[in-house]
């Protein structure tokens, strides 16, 4: 059981190292994983899963580029904060 947990941690670390660092005004966002089945147990198609993933209006900010929100007048009241681990 401990070996499986250690492998999962190593896999997560490997994936985290593959993420790009945003530059300029760009924001790196993690989208939530869509549910694979409907409420009644019917499996969703790949197309439905894709549409739900890209149609998501929520996400977790992983990283902000250095110029992101540097000019307070340019974002019209929008804001983003990097999620900090607790």
Relative strand content? 5-15%
Number of separate strands? 2
Summarize the amount of helix as a percent range: 25-40%
Task: Please list the strands of the largest sheet in the order they lie side by side.
Answer: 1-2
Q: Which radius of gyration do the C-alpha atoms yield? A: 17 Å
Euclidean distance between termini CA atoms: 25 Å
Strand count, sense and closure of the main sheet? 2 strands, antiparallel
Look at the helices and sheets and give the structural class. Answer: alpha+beta
Spans where pLDDT lies below 50 across 5 or more residues? none
Spatial shape: flat
- Tell me, rounded to a whole number, the average pLDDT: 79
**Could you spell the SSE succession in H and E letters?**
HEHE
Number of helices: 2
SSE arrangement:
Blueprint: H1 2-17, E1 27-30, H2 46-54, E2 60-64
Antiparallel strand pairs: 1-2
Summarize it.
This protein is α+β, with helices and mostly antiparallel strands.
Descriptive overview:
With 86 residues, the protein is of the alpha+beta class. It has a domain at 20-79. 29% of the residues lie in helices and 10% in strands. It is built from 2 helices and 2 strands, in the order αβαβ. It has helices at residues 2-17, 46-54, and strands at 27-30, 60-64. It has a two-stranded antiparallel ribbon. The two termini are 25 Å apart. The mean pLDDT is 79.
């Amino acid at each position: 059981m401990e070996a499986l947990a250690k492998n999962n941690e190593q896999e997560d670390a490997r994936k985290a190292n593959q993420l790009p660092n945003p530059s300029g005004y760009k924001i790196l966002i993690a989208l939530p994983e869509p549910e694979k089945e409907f409420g009644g147990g019917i499996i969703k198609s790949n197309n439905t899963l894709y549409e739900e993933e890209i149609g998501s209006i929520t996400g977790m900010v992983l990283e902000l580029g250095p110029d992101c929100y540097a000019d307070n007048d340019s974002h019209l009241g929008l804001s983003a904060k990097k999620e900090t681990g607790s």
